[in-house]
Amino acid sequence: MTAVKFKTAAAGLFALAVFAGFHSVAVGAMDWPSETAGLIRNFGANDTGKPVLGMVFSGDTEILAAERGEVIFSRGRDGRASRLPSPLGAWTAVDHGDGLISIYSRYDTESQPPARVERQDTIAASGISGWSSRNGFFFQVYDRRERRWINPAMIMTPQREILPPQILSVELRNAQGVPIQAWNVSQGRYTVVVNTNIPRAPRDTFFAPQRIICLVNGTEAGSLNFEAISARDGVLMVNRNGLVPAKQVYAASPAFEVADIFLNRGQVSLEIIVQDISGNSSGHIIRMIVN
Known about the structure:
Layout: E1 4-5, E2 16-19, E3 22-25, E4 38-41, E5 46-47, E6 50-51, E7 55-58, E8 62-64, E9 69-75, E10 90-95, E11 100-107, E12 116-117, E13 122-125, E14 136-143, E15 148-150, E16 166-173, E17 179-180, E18 184-185, E19 188-197, E20 209-216, E21 219-232, E22 235-240, E23 243-245, E24 256-263, E25 266-276, E26 281-290
Parallel strand pairs: 18-26
Antiparallel strand pairs: 1-9, 2-3, 4-7, 5-6, 7-14, 8-13, 9-10, 9-12, 10-11, 11-14, 14-15, 15-21, 16-17, 16-19, 19-24, 20-21, 20-25, 21-22, 22-23, 25-26
């Protein structure tokens, strides 16, 4: 199957807004791209030191257009559109106007989507292609005006959330990157590393942590947000109190470097709060002595 390209037509479907000091996208503009698939990896998750730039779904399902738009690119799993294999495998890109594109990939089908799609039209069938090892598909939203990968959760129909995020561990690392096991530490600079987990749940009760906040003695010392991941000159940038390279956020283990802090002598209260897109939160407080 060869690649099929179509002319782009702007549709003016979405609006960008400013939220909490950085760009956000209006919520509720898109539908879920499947009625039955399970969400197994979420946007912003730590993939061995790199961010996941979309949502990974599993299951045998039809892949549905999240919103109406014009197909601007589609290629089959055989890859004859290019001499090089694509990590996306079979994939389709749909232009929704205002620079916003939805991308459906890593499926395994020879079906060809129409030139224009309406919301919930079938794009393809799930499967295995590209950098995938299980039946399903990969869903992404890209803002090509701002050169940002958008968290699909920010613009999809809100889902009911009943399971709050979990905090598995909180760790301090010194200037040499060595983990500090005890909570009786010396005065100085440390990096706060947080490992969070998403309880396994059906799709309609599942959302990833959206924000991780670090407070020292009740004052915010740093926060990590997963609303969008920007691309600047080939470098992925994550919002941690401003845009910073992803390598400064994503630890080699499945954890996040949330903040760099300076601890003064005395009693110190370190609090971590993890929030999800639905407003649920979990908190963990550690009290320590700084010498």
